[in-house]
Amino acid sequence: MNTFPTVHFSEKLEKDYPQAWQTIKKVLNKHSISYRFLLETKDIWCRDYMPIKSNDGTLVQFKYMPSYLKNYTKLKSKPQEVNRVNRIAAIYSDLNVDGGNVELHDGIVFLTERVFSENPKWSREQVIEELTLTLKAKPYFVKDQKKDIDTTGHVDGHFRVIKTGEVVVNDFSNDDEYVVASFKKIMNELKWKYTMMPWFEEDDKPKDSMSAIGIYTNFLVIDNIILFPIFEVEGNKDAEALEVIKELYPNKIIEPININSVVKEGGLINCITWVN
Questions:
Q1: Which of 262, 154, 254, 263 is nearest to 214 (CA)?
Q2: What GO biological process term is on the record, naming one (predicted)?
Q3: Does residue 1 lie within any of the structural domains?
Q4: I need a surface site. Which of 11, 57, 132, 170 has the fewest CB within 10 A?
């Protein structure tokens, strides 16, 4: 019998997105996966402001001052207060890092270069040193899309580690070449292989929309269970994406979930969860 880790959500998820929560809750209950709501959170994207587990298991709480929330202070959770109220112990760093921009596995951590512009008072060398010391991992940086294309610059909307030596990445046929080149350079340096995941954009998506519909790489792995986003909208590539994830994880149970009410706000299942 599996003993799953507890999955944490902002308390605002249940209140503000009840339909999406019921969809998630049904899957968690089906597999007897425990969950907990985090108090004193200001928005549902708890992946970003909660501590990051370092390579040696230490919880590291980075500073949470994302530039994209500069004019939305009411949406900015205060990590120290969230941790205190929820009795979560962590070590603290003054480096400004979103959890969604950290993909750590086996002594290697991937981020986009957005971390450098988010820390203008730190030199590149200082950022690298702090990440290395706190996360006990060697950092690699893929170039990020321009802010008018990708507001957050998070790596978890671009690619995810499957296992040591392998990642899955969004189909980058429509990406800027400088982003693709930086990604391929890292993969070549590490001698890792990658699989491309289908990607699509809604035909009627407004220009100013934050919707993340069409991104399949932002899934959640809980031991042998995967909560995998599907969208069920016109032009979707749900079937193709499910085939890819099944091939990547042949021994895991894939649970497709549609939480489009959340996704239209700019994030997916990995964004709204924190697993300790």
A1: 263
A2: putrescine biosynthetic process
A3: no
A4: 57
